[in-house]
Amino acid sequence: MRLWRLLLQSHLGNAFWIELLCVSLPAPSNVSISSFNMEHTLSFLPGLPTPPDTHFTVQTLHFRKNTWRPVAACLELTAGQTCNLTRAFKDPLNQYWARIRAFTPTQTSNWTVSERFRPLFDTVLGPPDVSASGCGNCLLLQIRFPSTTGLQHFKRFYRRVVLYVRRSRDDAQFSLSLPYKEENIISYLETGVEYCVTVSVMSHISPNRISSKPCCAFTSPPRARSSLHLVLSLLGVFCALGFLLVGLVVHGGQLSFKLLRTPRRRTLSYILLQCRHRGSAPIVSHEVSEGSADCQQAASATTELL
Ligand SMILES: *[C@@H]1O[C@H](CO)[C@@H](O)[C@H](O)[C@H]1NC(C)=O
Ligand SMILES: *[C@@H]1O[C@H](CO)[C@@H](O)[C@H](O)[C@H]1NC(C)=O
Ligand SMILES: *[C@@H]1O[C@H](CO)[C@@H](O)[C@H](O)[C@H]1NC(C)=O
């Protein structure tokens, strides 16, 4: 620790003598390096008060090289910008520092130095992509990490995978811990049933586990059940149609019978009335001819019908 502090101070001192600028700007604050999946980013806040035309410049130091080097893409940052240090910190097993200072054409600030950064240990790994496919009474599981170049270094540090397997139907679940492999088989499962698997990867580097999102798949197409369902539902539809048809036929028959019956009854009652009121001389209608005998016949026919 003491060694690199001394180094930093000697470099700071040199910079001031050579550049002969007035060190009167406030130094940037909150300098930090964040890293996700081996992509490293430096962020900072301008010191207060910083004039609006201020720019910021970044340099990095390798533990083994002991010289500060400018980062080509971060020579003239403005407030609010970040610096991509992925290329500058490309050796995953090295240790690095970054520093930043503010400058205008006539003034500069002191450097603000970051904490020590170790790419392999300080990066945060995102969850792996998991895909699953059925293989009868088993599931074939593929685990993939993003193919960022830096991430390739991690493979040798993966130790185990823990698989959490949940049956969708009833949430019954169990877990399996296996040596790390990109392809895994989960066997002894039910066929034609959906399972959801969450994968958790443990590494030698970090105590934190990296968990995937649940990935769901059927062990085999749920064919037997679905065809049974189809047959049953078709049967149901046919039954319903049959009942509907029978109902229509019965109802239709009743209707036509009523239609046939109604007009005849009316004519006959009319004739009956005529017979009663006028005795032996009823008015002639189409169906019944003159005479009381006909009237009586009509009357008896009416009672039969009614
Ligand atoms: C820059 O650093 C020197 C020594 O560490 C300090 O005395 C000086 O006040 C600093 N300047 C500013 C503007 O912070
Ligand atoms: C900057 O750092 C200071 C002290 O370390 C902290 O209190 C403050 O919340 C930080 N500001 C931001 C915006 O992160
Ligand atoms: C940072 O640089 C790396 C390497 O050049 C690149 O792959 C990555 O996309 C960059 N990240 C951002 C946020 O620009």
From TrEMBL:
<feature type="transmembrane region" description="Helical">
    <location>
        <begin position="230"/>
        <end position="257"/>
    </location>
</feature>
<feature type="domain" description="Interferon/interleukin receptor">
    <location>
        <begin position="123"/>
        <end position="219"/>
    </location>
</feature>
<dbReference type="InterPro" id="IPR013783">
    <property type="entry name" value="Ig-like_fold"/>
</dbReference>
<dbReference type="Pfam" id="PF01108">
    <property type="entry name" value="Tissue_fac"/>
</dbReference>
<keyword id="KW-1133">Transmembrane helix</keyword>
<dbReference type="Pfam" id="PF09294">
    <property type="entry name" value="Interfer-bind"/>
</dbReference>
<feature type="signal peptide">
    <location>
        <begin position="1"/>
        <end position="15"/>
    </location>
</feature>
<dbReference type="InterPro" id="IPR015373">
    <property type="entry name" value="Interferon/interleukin_rcp_dom"/>
</dbReference>
<keyword id="KW-0732">Signal</keyword>
<dbReference type="GO" id="GO:0004896">
    <property type="term" value="F:cytokine receptor activity"/>
</dbReference>
<feature type="domain" description="Fibronectin type-III">
    <location>
        <begin position="23"/>
        <end position="111"/>
    </location>
</feature>
<dbReference type="InterPro" id="IPR036116">
    <property type="entry name" value="FN3_sf"/>
</dbReference>
<protein>
    <recommendedName>
        <fullName>Interferon alpha/beta receptor 2</fullName>
    </recommendedName>
</protein>
<dbReference type="InterPro" id="IPR003961">
    <property type="entry name" value="FN3_dom"/>
</dbReference>
<dbReference type="InterPro" id="IPR050650">
    <property type="entry name" value="Type-II_Cytokine-TF_Rcpt"/>
</dbReference>
<dbReference type="GO" id="GO:0005886">
    <property type="term" value="C:plasma membrane"/>
</dbReference>
<keyword id="KW-0472">Membrane</keyword>
<keyword id="KW-0812">Transmembrane</keyword>
